[in-house]
Amino acid sequence: MISVKDVSKSYKDIRVLSDVALTIDEGEILALVGETGSGKTTLAYLIAGTIKPDCGEIIVRGRMVVDINRKEFLKTVGIVYQSPRDSISHRFTVFEAIAEPLHIHGEFDDTSPGRIKDALREVQLPVDEYFLQKYPHELSGGELQRVAIARALILAPDMLIADESTSFLDPSVQAKVLRLLLDLQNERGISMLFVTHDIGVARKVSDRIAVLHDGRIVENAPAHRVIANPEHQYTKQLIGVAKGKTDVVV
Length: 250
Hints:
Elements: E1 2-11, E2 14-24, E3 29-33, H1 40-48, E4 55-60, E5 63-64, H2 70-76, E6 77-80, H3 84-87, H4 94-104, H5 112-122, H6 129-132, H7 141-153, E7 159-163, H8 171-188, E8 191-196, H9 199-205, E9 208-213, E10 216-222, H10 223-228, H11 233-243
Parallel strand pairs: 3-8, 3-9, 6-7, 7-8
Antiparallel strand pairs: 1-2, 1-4, 4-5, 9-10
């Protein structure tokens, strides 16, 4: 699905990523794990096409991202940002927030209200007019994150990037959103890049874990193998931190 080849990225004189190589298979959930400042969000944004690498290649199904029409690419890869209160305009109602991608891509038509309601049902939210006309400040954190997920899925992408999309939620809501993402991935068969600082959560939701440290991939293996037999000292530290936390039941 996605192939990242020797990608590097700097902001001014600060090197954030160095020669990163990574693949994501069709239908696979890859967890990208690392602490704040490790470069994982930058890598997620590079894969999402929102920023460009300084060098290296990002290939989607055999085609360079730079050679893919922007609208076509955005229908292939959807992204759920860490904070929906920042990514969704406070001026939009629930209906308008989910409809925005359809308007941008010229796909809003008479069938769109039905598509929007179907997307809300998929993320287990109400579809009545009262809820559709609510604004972000009227929603709970969990409800707003589900709206953000529905918005990311409205164009039926083949891959979803979830960038720390549950980190700001309390444990009980986090577990529900994680379960929702897993159910959606299973039903749609989409690929998923799940970005998180919590390797314990990564273990529960992913097929494979890639550990990013100081801008480099230091571990990349099936999730059960990374947890049971970590090779890099940094991965061992992350697992030690995770063991000291209250577990999230998904």
